[in-house]
UniProtKB/TrEMBL annotation:
Protein name from the UniProt record: Manganese-dependent ADP-ribose/CDP-alcohol diphosphatase
Family in the record: Belongs to the ADPRibase-Mn family.
Pfam families: Metallophos
Record-level Gene Ontology MF annotations: 2',3'-cyclic-nucleotide 2'-phosphodiesterase activity; ADP-ribose diphosphatase activity; CDP-glycerol diphosphatase activity; manganese ion binding
Subunit architecture: Monomer.
Organism from which the protein derives: Camellia sinensis var. sinensis
Residue ranges constituting the Calcineurin-like phosphoesterase domain according to the UniProt record: 19-266
Catalytic activity, as annotated: ADP-D-ribose + H2O = D-ribose 5-phosphate + AMP + 2 H(+); CDP-choline + H2O = phosphocholine + CMP + 2 H(+); CDP-glycerol + H2O = sn-glycerol 3-phosphate + CMP + 2 H(+)
Cofactor: Mg(2+)
InterPro entries on file: Calcineurin-like_PHP (IPR004843), Metallo-depent_PP-like (IPR029052), MPP_ADPRM (IPR041869)
Length: 321
């Protein structure tokens, strides 16, 4: 059966579960502006996009949970308003009535508040300010939320070993004094920017263990990360620093079917060399007034169907065997 979104339903089958998605709300109570590269940003309107998303998710009644792909508040939010702005957005998510909202951290979250203050507000289960976790809403599926700012020059105290490791990496890979500038970096090397980060060694080992466990439990896995993991779905400047190391771990197991991300606001989609689907979600922040970018995903045993609203494109992700 065809649909208005242009994607085809799974032969009339009922999904195993459905969940809501939104990314890069980047709310701030400040006038409209633009990105460093001149793309318009609608800081006050983005909360309306989120409100319409939650309204729609509530009306649908069938969603079991929602995932926010990070950057809930913009770094331009005046510092004395950051806490208030984060709480305001978390409150909007809490209006979702049908289950939990799973958050992840983005660079703009960390410009607004340090990790130790942010994680409890976002209800991210955490030991030692780690922000990676997994959950299994039904026995057949596991969702893994990665912390792309595990090794990062933002969010940790300045003298923290993870800040030092991140600054060392940036020092070796980016010759500019402004480490947010990609000037002179070529191709995939353009990812070595301060507004990106990496998955650390402990997290990689944890991921390996979770995927082994998913295989043992006969579960399919969806990976979620603020930072994209595949160059085919993203600009080089938005990729996780060590996307290749993370994908090497993921490719060792055939349980991972889809990787979802935010951060690269224009969105993207690819199927990688191992047949995994990578979908980068279009940002709520870049919706001109009256337009939207959010969606929901129907989960089947052999595919994920993303139904996007307005600027978020619908995507059919059928698993390769
Ligand atoms: N060439 C650049 C680009 C950015 N900056 C500064 O870095 C900070 C973060 O940039 P921003 O575009 O706001 O980051 P987002 O997470 O919203 O978007 C990610 C990108 O789209 C990925 O491609 C900010 O302070 C910029 O001004 C910079 O100095 N130089």
């Amino acid at each position: 059966m065809g649909s208005a979104t242009g994607i085809v339903s799974a032969q009339g089958k009922q999904p195993l579960l459905s969940f809501g998605i939104i990314s890069d709300v980047q709310y701030a109570d400040i006038p409209d502006g633009h990105s460093f590269l001149g793309v318009p940003r609608y800081y006050r309107h983005s909360i309306l996009v989120l409100q319409r998303a939650v309204q729609k998710w509530n009306k649908m009644q069938k969603l079991k949970f929602a995932i926010n792909f990070g950057d809930i508040v913009d770094g331009f939010c005046p510092k004395d308003q950051s806490l208030n702005a984060v709480e305001k957005i978390v409150h909007e998510f809490e209006i979702f009535r049908h289950g939990s909202v799973y958050h992840m951290i983005g660079n703009h979250c960390l410009y607004s508040l340090p990790r130790d203050r942010l994680l409890p507000l976002l209800r991210i289960p955490s030991v030692d300010s780690r922000a990676y976790y997994d959950f299994s809403p039904i026995p057949e599926y596991r969702f893994v939320v990665l912390d792309g700012y595990d090794i990062s020059a933002i969010g940790w105290p300045q003298d923290h070993p993870k800040t030092i490791e991140a600054l060392k990496c940036l020092g070796e890979r980016n010759p500019n004094s402004d480490k947010n500038s990609p000037t002179g970096l070529v191709g995939l090397e353009r990812r070595f920017l301060m507004f990106n980060g990496a998955v650390g060694k402990d997290q990689l080992e944890w991921l390996d263990g979770v995927l082994q466990d998913a295989i043992n439990s006969n579960q399919k896995v969806v990976i979620c990360c603020h930072l994209p993991l595949d160059p085919g779905a993203s600009s080089p400047a938005a990729l996780l620093w060590n996307y290749d190391e993370v994908m090497d771990v993921i490719h060792r197991y055939n349980c991972v079917k889809v990787c979802l991300a935010g951060h690269d606001h224009k969105g993207g989609y690819s199927i990688d060399s191992h047949g995994l689907h990578h979908r980068v979600l279009e940002a709520a922040l870049e919706c001109p007034p009256g337009t939207d970018s959010f969606g929901y995903v129907d989960v089947f045993d052999d595919r994920l169907l993303l139904f996007g609203t307005d600027r978020m494109k619908s995507t059919e992700m059928i698993f390769t065997s």
